[in-house]
């Protein structure tokens, strides 16, 4: 009896000491479903395409989403509101993806950022089934189709039923202001003013300039920020842009008038503005706003309705302090989305970091072996 006990203890110690530690990346390679979910997350929108997300894998079916403060836009987004909204969009793709894959996913959004900057805990169970493959393909195509549309929109009106379809389930948190409303005019005028205020701030110009990419090589190396294609350029414009434009020029305030002309065209041709509303500025509410943002954006993409967020009102004083009151909105405005149709249905190549680049460097024990 005693001998058996000693032998069992010995085996247990051996099991613990021999459990192999994996890097997050090595571990992920053995877990394709987890890898797929994270890939969906990375296709989410983020302000300046800064991708302020990191992931720490805890086991084959659990991970943390972490706010990457090094990627925060400290001048336009000092309290990380937009970073958290971007993380919410990242989470939305994972939630929607898990439903398509037939997984049972649970998540807990923290009330506050944890000391290690984690903000969401995610766990899931179930395995991918082959029979879902058609809808998986459709979903993956939709993630790649959703994009920020910077071009002029057409005069075609969005039918009310289409707007209702896009915001279905989120009626309490989303408002639509069509072109003939006074709130539409308010947003149009104040976006111009807020843009001008922001454009005169050298620190904010410098910060923005860091996210512009001036060659395919730079885009490929950094895998974030704005490529020429994302700015809406065709091959001729791209040629001139890559050859005659540079970071110094983006920083130069003398280009502000040109920029104001562009934003005027963008706001003048919007068919309406969709606003995402939340209760307050907590981590939870910002992440929830991001979930709503991405869901209505994907619905819009599916209906060929174009979206461009216009954030200047929400970034600049006094505009950000006044908007809820001025528009009689109960709550905080989290996103303002220019909405309309255009003939530009080009799929723009997604510029995103690889999954291994967003993984944290904590090692994990091979929990699969331990569970056996
Ligand atoms: C919180 C947030 C704020 C944004 N603000 C703006 C904005 O003011 N103007 C704009 O053109 N795009 C804005 N965007 C869109 C991002 O620039 C865009 O998502 C990112 O460059 C990735 O491109 P994609 O959406 O085409 O995938 C915003 C996105 C998010 C999530």
Automatic annotation (TrEMBL):
Keyword annotations: Signal
Q: What highest taxon heads this organism's lineage?
A: Bacteria
One GO MF annotation is: oxidoreductase activity
Lipid metabolism among the record's keywords?
no
- InterPro entries hit by this protein: Nitroreductase-like, Nitroreductase/BluB
The residue range of the signal peptide is 1-19
Q: List the protein's name.
A: Uncharacterized protein
Q: Which organism is it from?
A: Sebaldella termitidis (strain ATCC 33386 / NCTC 11300)
């Amino acid at each position: 009896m005693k001998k058996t006990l000693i032998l069992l203890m010995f085996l247990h110690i051996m099991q613990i000491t021999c459990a192999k530690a994996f890097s997050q990346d090595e571990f992920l390679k053995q877990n394709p479903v987890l890898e797929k979910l994270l890939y969906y997350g990375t296709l989410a929108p983020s302000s300046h395409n800064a991708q302020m997300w990191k992931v720490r894998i805890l086991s084959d079916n659990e991970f943390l989403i972490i706010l990457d403060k090094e990627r925060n836009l400290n001048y336009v987004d000092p309290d990380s509101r937009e970073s958290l909204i971007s993380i919410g969009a990242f989470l939305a793709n994972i939630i929607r993806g898990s439903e398509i894959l037939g997984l049972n996913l649970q998540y807990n959004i923290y009330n506050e950022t944890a000391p290690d900057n984690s903000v969401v805990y995610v766990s899931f169970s179930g395995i991918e089934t082959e029979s879902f493959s058609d809808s998986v393909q459709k979903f993956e195509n939709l993630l790649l189709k959703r994009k920020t549309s910077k071009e002029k929109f057409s005069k075609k009106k969005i039918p009310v039923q289409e707007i209702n379809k896009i915001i279905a389930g989120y009626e309490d948190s989303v408002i639509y202001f069509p072109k003939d409303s006074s709130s539409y005019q308010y947003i149009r005028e104040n976006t111009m003013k807020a843009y001008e205020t922001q454009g005169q701030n050298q620190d904010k110009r410098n910060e923005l300039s860091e996210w512009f990419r001036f060659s395919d090589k730079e885009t490929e190396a950094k895998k974030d920020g704005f490529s020429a294609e994302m700015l809406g350029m065709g091959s001729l414009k791209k040629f001139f842009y890559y050859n005659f434009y540079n970071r110094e020029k983006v920083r130069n305030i003398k280009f502000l008038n040109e920029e104001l002309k562009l934003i005027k065209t963008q706001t003048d041709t919007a068919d309406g503005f969709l606003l995402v509303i939340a209760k307050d500025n907590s981590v939870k509410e910002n992440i929830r706003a991001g979930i709503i943002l991405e869901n209505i954006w994907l619905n819009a993409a599916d209906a060929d309705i174009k979206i461009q967020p216009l954030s200047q009102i929400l970034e600049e004083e006094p505009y950000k302090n006044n908007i809820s009151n001025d528009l009689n909105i109960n709550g905080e405005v989290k996103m303002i989305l220019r909405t309309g149709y255009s003939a530009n249905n080009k799929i723009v190549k997604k510029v995103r970091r690889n999954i291994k680049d967003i993984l944290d460097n904590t090692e994990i024990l091979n929990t699969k072996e331990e569970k056996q």
